[in-house]
Amino acid sequence: MDERAAGTRSSVEAVFREEHGRLLAALVHRFGDLDLAEDVASEAIEAALLHWPVDGVPSRPGAWLLTTARRRAVDRLRRDQAYAARLALIAAEAERADAAAPVSDDDGLPDERLRLFFTCAHPALPAADRGALTLRYLAGLTTPEVARAYLVPTATMAQRLVRAKRKISEARIPFRVPEPAELPGRLPGVLQAVYSIFTEGYAASSGPRLQRLDLAEEAIRLARILRGLLPTQREVAGLLGLMLLVHARWDARIGADGELVLLDAQDRTRWDRDMINEGRSLVLVALTGGTPGPYGVQAAIAALHDEAADEASTDWPQVVALYDVLLALTPSPVVALNRAVAVAMRDGPEAGLALLDELAGEAQLRGYHPYPAARAGLLHRLGRHAEAAAAYREALDLAGTEPEREHLRGRLAAVDPTDG
């Protein structure tokens, strides 16, 4: 591949990563079929790789891709009249259900992603499939990346995605924003999907980089859209607040050489104070007016970290109390892991380690490197270096990104300088 072709491929890949969700959502809105939308979106990318090296990258690449994909879809439908009739019926039902005008930006590509989010979060779909489906098709993550996000094997995730798409087709789930009465059953799935995107952006599941800022910022943008659409939903405010309070630290999480910098060692002057202030105001919204939701509680925990001058002055008793609330709302080994680390900061490493050891048999924590890494850190603090080294090696084998692995290598060297 020559230099120009390589540059063009890079441009196409960058555009596709940026425009994937909007392109796919616009195609599903027009044709009512996710499989068809996927196929013609891929064909549009192939056409871009063919034409852009000759004609140059267009000024509105997203609109170019959409126009090309639509033409390919129409060609397919003309060749299959029975298929066309079925899709026309689905599209007509979707249009009758939601006649709201789409949002467009300067690129001319309509933003239909909220509709697709709610489609993927439909209650007819199994709860475990909703976020995964949305993460794959709205954020453009690969199937292995989605599998890592959900801590399951890639083959399991691939089967889940196929099953979820089949369910959408067979149940003829409409492509629309739900009515207000439907929101309580539909919104949690959408929020989980958005948060999954942010999580992958904040801490990438694999690759050379610790963070994928494009995904984190996309999740925040989508949460802002949800906030504008659903201003009275406190959990939307909680989710947006949580992401802002965490993302405010992104610049301090990476050292000069790209290394991971943990919270206790971060230069807090590099945190984005405007983002923190906005996040704190959203925490107040999320916690006012009744029992808080999980995102509001997590946002309150993040706010306590952001308000502290350093790790020692963090209000650890309040952090533990909030984790108690969160664990009651959403019992999960991952929440219990985070609570154990907070207890270690409040009561000492032995107390935290005892709680972590109680979680040793939890299936969800198998393959989850923060668990052995947390144990290693507490064992290190207790001077149990041989055990700490073994736990660091386990975490090192499981870590997905190179900055995480390099950080763990450094910690391992501190307890076992002879480790090769």
UniProtKB/TrEMBL annotation:
Keywords recorded for this protein, A-Z: Sigma factor, Transcription, Transcription regulation
Similarity section: Belongs to the sigma-70 factor family. ECF subfamily.
Residues in coiled coil: none
Domain RNA polymerase sigma factor 70 region 4 type: 120-168
Presence of the UniProt keyword Acetylation in the record: no
Keyword Acetylation: no
UniProt cross-references to Gene3D superfamilies, sorted A to Z: 1.10.1740.10, Winged helix-like DNA-binding domain superfamily/Winged helix DNA-binding domain
Residue ranges of domain RNA polymerase sigma-70 region in the record: 18-81
Occurrences of domain DUF6596 (ranges): 186-283
GO molecular function ontology, one term from the record: sigma factor activity
Name recorded for this polypeptide: Sigma-70 family RNA polymerase sigma factor
GO BP terms, alphabetized: DNA-templated transcription initiation
